[in-house]
Every structure is written in structure tokens, then in C-alpha cells.
Amino acid sequence: MIGTSAAFYHGYHNLLHMFLALFGLVAFHISVNTLNDYHDFKSGIDLHTRRTPFSGGSGLLPIGKVSPEMAHYMGLISLGVGSLIGIYFTLAISWQVLPILILGIIAVYFYNTLFSKLMVGEILAGLGLGLLPVLGVFLVISGKITPLAFFAGFPPFFLTFNLLFLNEFPDSEADRMGGRRHLVIFLGKKRAGVLYLIITTITYISIIIGIVLRILPIWTLLALLTIPIAIKAIKGALTDYDNFEKFISAQGANIFVVLVTQALFALGFFIAAIV
């Protein structure tokens, strides 16, 4: 919706391409989640993690609801579907779609087996489920990428970075046992909470900078309405990181911030386009 609304603010709209891009992105998201479940089950991570409503995997493989083979096949098929849609856009719209598509495929397929062990998993999540989708959707609707598209993609990048980052706190010990290497393990939970504070602050600052530079419309300030909930998530990251039950509240606040901030950000573009 952010890519669509930013393009609409620029005067471009194409509902067919919007829904086709949405279908492709959902396919990629299914792929990365099912492949993640498959590899976490095979490595034993899902057998040791304490699941929350927001982290710890789906839990379907450990209880036998889904076989590892089925999860693996589903992940590969979904990756193929998303890739075919990306190839169509490359041929029909612009070669500029291709590097975005290739980065997306690499991020999806190698996230668990490579990037989650190199302390760049959070960055790949921010790219693959944040910045790249915004740039890609903006491109397939408008036919080009502008500075506005990048500034529209920065908040989703930081928010999706934080989405994965905070959800790594409860899983850090299981992840360590399974061979993962991410920022929570490297920094420790206390310092990781400080980084969460910094990234959250940068998210809102990036919007303000975009407005000051007259790249983003002033209506995107609506996204700042989630700051009170963000403070709740920050407080949990800084003080409740060793209390499993209390930390779930911080995770819930984080999910709210990720979803509602982006919804308000997109709404700001739509309002600016029509007023």
C-alpha cells in the first residue's frame, strides 16, 4: 500500500499491477516463512524455542501437522510463483525490476541457511519485506523509481528490521543452539534493547527528514501517531527482556507499531494526493 499510495501521490495508478504485485509479494512471504519453518525444524531450533503469538515459528512441523517435505515443497513453489510474476514485470515494465527481483529471491532462499548466520538477517528482512517491495510496487505502477520511492521505503525498512529484531529476543538461546548468529546474540539482550530504541527513533526521524527536504508530503506525519505505542515497545525491550511473559506485551506493541505506522504512512500519501 505504501508503494501504491506513493505512486498515486505522484499521479500514477494501475490496479491490475497493484494486485498482481500484491499476489507476488504474498507468494514470497509464504516462501520465506515456510522455508524458515522447514530449516528451523531440521536444525532443531523449533524443538527448543518457546513460542509466543508473534515468534517461534508456526509450530506445525514439531507437532506433525505439516511434514518437513511439504513445507519445503510449499516454500519452493511459492518462491517460483513470486519469481514468475517478477519476470513478467521485468519483461512488461522495465529491466529495473530485475535487480529488485534477484535481491528478493536471494533474501528469501538464503535467509535461513546463510544470512541468519552472518548477523545480517535483520537487514535482509528490512530489505526483502520493507524497502524492496515499496520500490518494486512503485516501479511497476509508475514505470520509474524516484527519490520519493526511496524515502517511502525507508520507514518500512526500519520497521521490518525491528519486527524481526524484537522477535529474536525470546528465541536467542534456541537460535544460538541451532547455529544462528544475529544481533541479539551478538549484543546481548540489554544492548540489543538500546539498538531497538535507536532504530525506532530513526524510523520516525526518516519521515521528518523526508518532509523537511520536501520529498514526502506533510500528511505522512500521520505515521507519528504511533509514537506512544512505540514507547511501550521500547520500554519492554529495555526492561522486560528477561521476563518471558511481560515481553510478549512488548512484542504485541511492536507488531502494532509496524502495521499501523505503515498504514498511516500510506494514508498520508493518499490524503496528500486528493487534497
Overall average pLDDT: 92
Distance between the termini: 19 Å
Give the overall shape: globular
Q: The biggest beta sheet, please?
A: none
Strand proportion:
under 5%
How many strand elements? 0
Number of domains: 1
Q: Work out the radius of gyration.
A: 19 Å
What series of H and E elements makes up the topology? Answer: HHHHHHHHHHH
What is the count of helical runs? 11
Overall SS class: mainly alpha
What is the helix fraction of residues, given as a range? over 70%
What's this, in brief?
With 275 residues, the protein is mainly α. The chain has helices at residues 2-9, 15-43, 68-92, 97-110, 121-142, 147-167, 172-177, 183-187, 189-212, 227-239, 244-274. 72% of the residues lie in helices and 0% in strands.
Report on this model:
The protein is 72% helix and 0% strand. The protein has one domain. The protein has helices spanning 2-9, 15-43, 68-92, 97-110, 121-142, 147-167, 172-177, 183-187, 189-212, 227-239, 244-274. The chain is globular.
List keywords for this structure.
single chain, 275 residues, mainly alpha, 72% helix
List the helices and strands and how they pair.
Elements: H1 2-9, H2 15-43, H3 68-92, H4 97-110, H5 121-142, H6 147-167, H7 172-177, H8 183-187, H9 189-212, H10 227-239, H11 244-274
